[in-house]
Amino acid sequence: MLIAFKLKLALACVAGLAGPIAMAPLVSDMAVHGTTAEPAIVSIAPGSFSYREAGDFTRAGRQAEAPLRAMRFAKPLHIMREQVSSSDYQLCVQDGACHALDRGVAIASDRPAVQVNWHDAQAYADWLSRKTGHTYRLPSDAEWAFAAGTRFRDDGAPVDVDDPAKRWISRYERESERDLSDTTAYPFGKFGLNEHGIEDLAGNVWEWTSTCFVRSRIDEAGKAGRPTVNCGVRVAEGAHRAYVTDFIRDARAGGCAQGVPPANLGFRLVREETSWVASVSARWGKGWAART
């Protein structure tokens, strides 16, 4: 297992995208007791928006700007108003379904669960789905951007084919404009509401998404080659877009990550809405199966 862990980190670093090695989670000094409740959900009406694709893009072997596409969501998006709180996450820990938070994380109903990796977030989504009977999952990067609205930071940057390094310098300077040294996990509401009524988007907690890191290549004729998909690295969204190795809980140490690292890693979830017909059919099917 240790060899596999080291190999995974080495491969991520070769790709230039890994973060620091996370310490083993420690049991919190505080205990939270309670029952699982449905989180507050914001429903966003269907609509269109411009989306800068995530990933790394090259054209004819040279760095290229990520394409900006018009996207439309045909169905409402149901997403948590707040990030998952540390006290709600602690219930999953007490149930034996989630890894414990680090000792430095404050356990409270009004503070986000931070220093969690992608697998921690996935485990919580699975646990919450079992507990509530609804399907919860991490949003895709496109869904997060749609929900963020004006809080979404377009990370497009012009590319100088003669000096590709200028693009990385420009991005680093833009990411550094905001004070990222403040790593306090503030109570909910610190960073305000966006136009959809969603709290703390693009604050100092980066949120895991389900989107994998992708390298896309286009040849001189404009023909797209087969993309390289690396699901060991996921997109995290916050004050800027970040690519973080899926087992990293604290990206602040830098490691071999690109750009300015996230101050905190947390998450919020999307709830899948089942139509009335599908819900009745599922219940009828379960009832029939129980009788046969």
CATH class: Alpha Beta
The shape, in one word, is: globular
> How much of the sequence is in beta strands?
15-25%
Mean pLDDT: 78
| Beta-strand segment tally | 12
Order of helices and strands: HEEEEEEHHEHHEEEEEH
Helicity level: 25-40%
CATH architecture: Alpha-Beta Complex
Tally of structural domains: 1
Overview of the molecule:
With 292 residues, the protein is an alpha+beta fold. The protein has a single domain, classed as paralog of FGE (formylglycine-generating enzyme). It is built from six helices and twelve strands. The strands form four sheets. Strands 3, 4, 8, 9, 10 and 11 form a six-stranded mixed sheet that branches. Strands 1-6 form a two-stranded antiparallel ribbon. Strand 3 and strand 4 form a beta hairpin. The protein is globular.
Question: Would you kindly provide a brief summary of this structure?
Answer:
This protein has six helices and twelve strands. With 292 residues, the protein is α+β, with helices and mostly antiparallel strands. It is globular, with a radius of gyration of 20 Å.
Helices and strands in order, then pairings?
Layout: H1 2-14, E1 41-44, E2 47-52, E3 56-59, E4 62-64, E5 68-73, E6 77-80, H2 86-94, H3 118-132, E7 135-137, H4 141-148, H5 165-176, E8 206-218, E9 228-237, E10 241-245, E11 265-266, E12 270-272, H6 276-291
Parallel strand pairs: 3-8, 8-11
Antiparallel strand pairs: 1-6, 2-5, 3-4, 7-12, 8-9, 9-10
List its traits.
about 290 residues; alpha+beta; paralog of FGE (formylglycine-generating enzyme); six-stranded mixed sheet; two-stranded antiparallel ribbon; 12 strands; about 25% helix; about 20% strand; disordered N terminus; disordered C terminus
